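Example 3.2
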Amino acid sequence: MREYLIPEEGFRVLFFIGKGGVGKTTSAAATSIALAKKGYKTLIVSIDPAHNLGDVFMVKLNDKPKKIIENLYAMELDMEKLIKAYLKHLKENLKHMYRYLTVINLEKYFEILSFSPGIEEYATLEAIREILIEGEKWDVIVFDTPPTGLTLRVLALPKISLIWADKLIEVRRKILERRKAIEKIQGERKFIIEGQEYKLPSDEERDAVMKELKKYKDEIEFVHKIITNPEKTTVVAVMNPEMLPLYETERAYESLNKFKIPFKLIVLNKILELDEVPPKLKVKIEAQKKVLELIKSKFKRIDIVKIPMLEEEPRGLGWLEKIGGIIVGD
């Protein structure tokens, strides 16, 4: 049994990544069933906008955990709903922090922000964070992710956001220092808004902006510590024995290494295994052999699991349990 797929202390997090159509959702679902069957309380979450998880389990899912079998719960997150919730959270925080700046049209600002590049990644990261906060409810949390590019941007965000948070805290600290210097000469700055008096803070302890920045940094640091901890997190790449998925998996491996996110397993899916090769499939089989050799040479330290091409589409618990047994390593 592959120990890095099961919890040691607390809970284990598995991110299944890969190109669309390689069998990522099926592999994630199969692994979650195998772990549940072994007695681990497992949650599988689809954060892929093109939800297929419910189709694989042959049940209708939503954003609340639904029991599939004993110890296994599944949910699909609505990306549009996530973005709205994320923007609402930002809006409330900004209104609280900058109430004295009544000249800003926040409504118009958030209309534009909802279409801004990166908002989907930040909303997805926030959803992951909220699930990880309640991680102790589970033994294993399995994430069925969007196509590789978006997933890598989401997984890179904590590290990038921590750099930004540190810089913004530094800038805010300098602003507060200058305010304090001005106060010594001119006294405290006060504003009257809607009949209520507001004081412009110059201390970190009273400054709402600084409080929010530090809170945000703590939230991001919480996610970052989990996804970079090899005792907690494992990324599983799913690919077919073809050159394009190989190139994408190689890029993912390099990117994850850069951000120190553990990558320990490749699920090599849909391998053709034939006793007699028809003439029309000879080229395909030779190409597959070449890819298999390249995978062995390029990923020497990564565990590789081979899943054969099945005679029928693997839907339903029976098929999924068989595949999950292979991945988990029974």
